[in-house]
Amino acid sequence: MAIKQRKAIIFAISIATAVVLILWKPTVLIYGLQAAGLYAAVAIPMGLVLGIVHIVNLSHGEFMMLASYATYTVCRALGVDPLIALIPAALVTALFGWVVFQLTIRRALKAPELNQLILTFGLAIAFSQIINLIFTSQTYKLSLEYSSMSLDIGDLSFGVWSFVFVAVAVIYAVGLQMFLTKTRTGKAALAVGQNPKGAAIVGIDVYRTYGLVFALAIGLVGAMGALFLTKSAIFPGVGSPFTMKSFSLVAMAGIGNIPGILGASVLLGLAENFLRSFRGTRDWAEIVYFVLIIAVILSRSLKGKKS
Questions:
Q1: What range defines the domain where residue 249 resides?
Q2: Is 207 exposed, middle or buried (0-12, 13-18, 19+ CB in 10 A)?
Q3: What pTM did the predictor assign?
């Protein structure tokens, strides 16, 4: 009963907050939801890896960055739209993720967690430096007419293309939930995530499943890399903030809680854009996720002491 009451209270507060923002600062709600969609679409694959493979991938954002650069190169060379390159980018990135898993991460799965963190952090640095050597630190951006589409409602004018990130985030969340609960491979992945030894006893190839899940997650991030290119400029360090924000969102939602990542992303997106709406607090927006993750950790620690 307490859980139902808590959910009802959270829902009521969410509705009240949305109404207040619509009446007071509608752009905070609009751009906050757009940012939330982007954050969730990048964070959900990390949540999948952490929930099944049980490894924190500190090179997560760098895989998106690599996909963005690869897409940019192909689009400039062939004159195609990033949306056309989206599926190929996802497939190539997934294959690359599988190779990286087999050559590096698989060998560290039984190692201490610190070793795993150092390994993936090293991959992140390597990816960034390689791109920096090839493309330099210069920023690159594609000029696309549809990415600057806007909508006017009375005196309010706002961009609408970034709502595509919201749609992708929902598709990722629903699609992965269906994959994990409705398909044989997904059920095997859940079994491996919950009890690797038990899954191996019943005949499931644990490391093969780990590789497939990691490749799937990196493929989803690769698709986001191509989509990210439609709206934003890219540079070698563009992926790092997404790694940190993704980790914070997964930690806030709880391991394995994919729908919870959506809610945490909305909270982060709204908080950031609320601070950006005031001149005096604009510079604080970039550290909001640190504040939120500290608050979540302290809250869970206090609950643990009470129980």
A1: 36-138+158-306
A2: middle
A3: 0.91
